[in-house]
NusG-like N-terminal domain-containing protein
Amino acid sequence: MAEMVAERTRARAVRPAGTLAGGLPCGRRVPKGRVRWYLLKVREGSEEVTCSKLLRAVPRDVLIDCFPLRKEHWFKRAGVWELQRVTAYRGYAFAVTADPSGLYKALSKLSVQAELAGADGRSWMPLAPDAQEWFERCMDEGHVLRSSTAVIVDGVLHVQEGPLVGQEPRIRKVDRHRRRCEVSLGWDGAFTEQMPLDVPFKS
């Protein structure tokens, strides 16, 4: 128990100000009535089930939507590349609400293991709006960040298909061998998200 407390203390100490768990950028507290994404701490491995339970138990005027963000991930099996879906932030889900206080009260009355994750000890801090906008733009209707396809011509990256089309300036690093890239999010570019990217051609 003492080791667990010490580990949590170390995690808080190294987490930079202005971030939520998982390194996600934190936004400012907003007035009631503005719909924002809030991070929920849930039991790892039960993200999808927990969200389903919450959507059944909490009124929709309090909880508009609840989901774990997932992404496609390239992996190699028996020499063949395949796509699989993985949870982007294991042990966490997003709650969409305009009433975080009401959601907090509703969660406290349930036996479901889910709690609003604060930032540096403060409760009800939403995801930064620019990060929220980027996720909303890039994920599909199933809350999945899908793979993109690109080519490199004369050293210049051109995304041809997928959620990263038109976002070449945001892409910092490309790992062709692992079929992924690092994308700069937000207005200041301080937060990055690893995204699946297949680059079959380079000249």
In short: The CA atoms of residues 59 and 168 lie 40 Å apart. The first strand starts at residue 36 and ends at 42. The longest helix spans residues 2-14. The helical segments are 2-14, 47-57, 100-108, 129-138.
